[in-house]
């Protein structure tokens, strides 16, 4: 009888420990998600700011070039560098932090509004695989 009570008490203690560990894990997970969300928001703001800066610089180069205040060769080089920066942003891992471009009328007509942006490479690849298998 005493053994049964001891094993019951031990089970209760172990269940209590497991419950406490589950709560701690939940709190740690919530903290991590919050931290990741804050970091992601920061990266989104930086990406939007950089995209805006690139657009502004392009406009400035065009304006200065039209007023003939800038050497055309230098303007071409600057434009090429800006294009490289755009490619780095839009084709690289930072693309997931940029706002989605509006789809064209033709795509919207057939597919509806689509916004597939993923911040992690594995998720991007999985989405591509699912899309290709659907096609």
From TrEMBL:
GO terms for cellular component: membrane. It comes from the Eukaryota. It is found in: Membrane. It is a multi-pass membrane protein. The keyword Coiled coil applies. Residues 1-28 form a coiled coil. It holds the Pfam family TMEM120A-B. Keywords: Coiled coil, Membrane, Transmembrane, Transmembrane helix. Belongs to the TMEM120 family. This is Uncharacterized protein. It comes from Gossypium lobatum. The lineage of its organism: Eukaryota, Viridiplantae, Streptophyta, Embryophyta, Tracheophyta.
């Amino acid at each position: 009888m005493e053994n049964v009570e001891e094993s019951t008490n031990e089970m209760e203690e172990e269940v209590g420990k497991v419950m406490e560990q589950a709560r701690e894990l939940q709190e740690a997970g919530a903290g991590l998600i919050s931290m990741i969300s804050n970091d992601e928001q920061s990266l989104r703001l930086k990406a939007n700011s950089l995209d805006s800066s690139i657009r502004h610089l392009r406009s400035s180069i065009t304006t200065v070039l039209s007023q003939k205040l800038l050497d055309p060769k230098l303007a071409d080089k600057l434009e090429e560098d800006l294009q490289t920066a755009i490619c780095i942003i839009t084709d690289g891992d930072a693309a997931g932090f940029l706002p989605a471009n509006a789809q064209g009328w033709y795509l919207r007509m057939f597919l509806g509004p689509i916004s597939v942006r993923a911040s992690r490479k594995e998720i991007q690849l999985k989405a591509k695989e699912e899309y290709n298998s659907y096609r």
